[in-house]
Design a protein that fits this description.
Chain lengths: ~350, ~300
């Protein structure tokens, strides 16, 4: 732990390699590893505290954060706006059970396969998107949202139509996973792999090209970055992440309905990355956690005032769904006004404060 | 041509006019302050609910309820611009888009909470429910909505051609810095644009509410307006009217296809196919300014 006090108080990097490291020093890397190990041990050591409720929450955060990370690669890193992320998530959720039940490939392999299939669909939508940008792209993806939703209700062989599709439970070559606790580890592994993948991709030539396209696409083109290629590729990568997230969602719930992937869900994904921080890998995770716990906080709030005058005046019990949605809308608006860089920025500020404590001025 | 198709075409024109009106309100905000307002549909919803509430709660004549609605929407439009949009001037486009989306979710769930999800009919306004024009039975409210739409369009034309505020707004849309140096308060122009847009949308909302009853389905107008304004050109007020008419007609023709060929939900989805098509072929629309920018 000595590293904590020996950190330099500024950026004194002398090589390019030092500038692109994921962790500034050994302490921050070790603390992340310790954090993951503690999370993995928590359900075993403290099964009373981390009961089914918490497992459910963690699993939700896991698969949603993978999809949110995909959207962050598209929006936060490449600067392409998409208001149709939920349908790609949904496509993955239908694709994985579809592959599994038609070919018999084990579920654990179907998940990445579903990601690849979703990436193909994303590329399909990405090709026209390479021509338009900004606002027009936002409107085009809004149209894609409604068109793919309509497609889900028509393609009965793929999605089961209005009846929905059933998904087999996760299995490892004959060993089936039924309980939330086991599924938690599956999701944890996927989250770690996908987050490491994204972090490392951002350190490569392609990742830097994404950021260049976002920051100034004209300069990027002049520097030799192929705009069309990277815009389309960003759509593909983002859809891959959405597909993997969706597949994990499908095998967790065991049932996928075509009504789940509506525009509100897409907006929730956008909310996650805005609250977490655009262009921040860890921000995607923080934003997702915020978005998952926000409705829970609203439930707790309504339970706390249940039976009181406020409850009667506002009719809270019947309006709880509206209260949740209102909280989502309000959170997005308030974060954009007061904390536009998101939770990731706030976290960096907290770290900087403690690094210099008690002389933090 | 059978009577059903004719009826659908008439419906298409009437609905299209309303799309045109909402589209104009949308374009007004975009031209004045470069904000794409995803909460336009909620303006319709709020206007309709406020008018419905004043009419049913206080039992006052329609005209007074309507005026109260207009005043309320004026205040709301200015408030939203000042409190929510003003801090975001200069922020990237994603922030501005997201803040209006956030507002739209917020208002929609708030109104669902306050008024419920079921459609509520307006109190009767006209004595005769329908009249005969050229041998076609047309509901009186449809005729009214037609008149209201044309009146709003005429008012817009006059406002931007002759009134001082309208000229100031056009100048701001054309060049903000030049307008500011000539003594035009850009802040006032932004606030006025939002106030007018909110009021005009509320009028459209009340009209649709009188025809179909007030329900959260109204806010879908705010999404249907995108195909219309993209078709017409995002920064053209005439384009919004033309685009609205075309999309309204297209939608009702798609309804004909739905009934005749049993293709399912084409009425709902056809405008979005049109939207993608326009963006591919002519992204700046029929009347929009063509930004020349090639890389």
């Amino acid at each position: 732990m000595a590293g904590a006090t020996m950190r330099p108080c500024g950026d004194f990097r002398t090589s390019y390699r030092a500038d692109t490291t994921i962790f500034d020093d050994r302490f921050s890397r070790n603390s992340v590893i310790v954090g993951i190990v503690l999370l993995a041990l928590a359900p075993i050591v403290l099964p009373e505290v981390f009961d089914a409720y918490w497992m459910n929450m963690f699993i939700q955060i896991g698969y949603l954060s993978i999809a949110a990370l995909g959207l962050n690669i598209l929006v936060g890193f490449t600067g392409q706006i998409s208001i149709g992320h939920a349908v790609f998530f949904g496509f993955g959720a239908f694709a994985s059970p579809f592959i599994n039940s038609n070919t018999g490939i084990p579920v654990v392999l179907c998940v990445p396969l579903a990601g690849v299939m979703t990436a193909a669909v994303g590329l399909l939508f990405g090709v026209p998107a390479a021509r338009i940008k900004g606002l027009y792209l936002a409107i085009a993806t809004l149209a894609a949202q409604f068109i793919l939703e309509d497609f889900f209700s028509r393609a009965e062989g793929f999605t089961g139509g209005v009846h929905g599709a059933t998904a087999n439970p996760m299995s490892f070559f004959g060993y089936d996973i039924y309980t939330d606790r086991e599924y938690f580890y599956v999701v944890l592994v996927f989250v770690i792999v996908m987050f490491l993948g994204a972090t490392n991709m951002m350190r490569t030539r392609d990742g830097r090209a994404f950021v260049a396209v976002r920051d100034h696409y004209l300069s990027a083109e002049i520097m030799g970055v192929n705009l069309t290629k990277y815009r389309v590729m960003s759509f593909g990568v983002s859809s891959f992440y959405a597909g993997v997230g969706g597949a994990l969602y499908a095998h967790y719930l065991g049932f996928v309905s075509i009504e789940a992937f509506n525009i509100l869900f897409s907006i929730q994904f956008l909310g996650m990355i805005i609250i977490g921080g655009l262009g921040s890998v860890m921000g995607s995770l923080m934003g997702t956690a915020f978005m998952v716990f926000l409705p829970e906080a609203m439930d707790a709030l309504s339970r706390a005032v249940a039976g009181g005058w406020l409850d009667r005046a506002l009719n809270l019990q019947s309006g709880i769904n509206n209260l949740r949605e209102m909280a989502i809308g309000a959170a997005i608006v308030l974060f954009l006004i007061f904390e536009p860089d998101g939770l990731a920025h706030r976290w960096r500020q907290i770290k900087a404060y403690w690094k210099l404590y008690p002389f933090s001025y | 041509m059978d009577a059903f198709l004719l009826q659908l075409l008439v419906n298409g024109v009437i609905v299209g006019m309303l799309y045109g009106v909402v589209g104009m309100a949308f374009v007004l905000i975009y031209k004045a302050s470069q904000v794409v307002n995803f909460a336009q549909g909620e303006f319709l919803l709020i206007g309709a609910w406020v008018c419905w509430w004043t009419l049913t709660e206080f039992d006052i004549p329609f005209v007074f309820g309507f005026l109260i609605t207009l005043v309320f929407m004026f205040v709301l439009g200015v408030l939203i611009q000042v409190v929510v949009l003003r801090p975001l001037i200069g922020e990237p486009i994603i922030s501005v888009i997201m803040v209006t989306i956030g507002l739209s979710i917020f208002f929609q769930s708030l109104l669902n909470w306050m008024f419920g999800v079921f459609a509520q009919p307006f109190p009767r306004i006209f004595e005769t429910p329908s009249m005969e024009i050229f041998g076609l039975q047309v509901q009186t409210v449809y005729v009214m909505s037609m008149f209201v739409s044309v009146a709003i369009m005429a008012a817009f034309a006059w406002f931007f051609k002759a009134s001082k505020t309208g000229l100031a707004m056009r100048a701001t849309a054309f060049d903000q810095q030049a307008a500011q140096s000539l003594g035009i308060s850009v802040r006032h122009v932004f606030a006025t644009a939002w106030a007018i847009s909110a009021m005009v949308s509320a009028v459209a909302g009340v009209v649709v509410g009188v025809v179909n009853g007030v329900s959260s389905a109204l806010s879908f107008f705010g999404i249907k307006v995108f195909p219309a304004v993209i078709l017409g050109g995002l920064d053209s007020i005439i384009g919004a009217v033309v685009g609205g008419l075309i999309i309204g007609l297209l939608e009702n023709l798609a309804a004909y296809v739905d009934v005749d060929l049993q293709w399912g939900n084409m009425q709902r989805i056809a405008p979005f196919y049109a939207l993608i098509l326009i963006l591919m072929i002519k992204p700046y629309g029929l009347f929009g300014t063509r930004d020349i920018e090639r890389v």
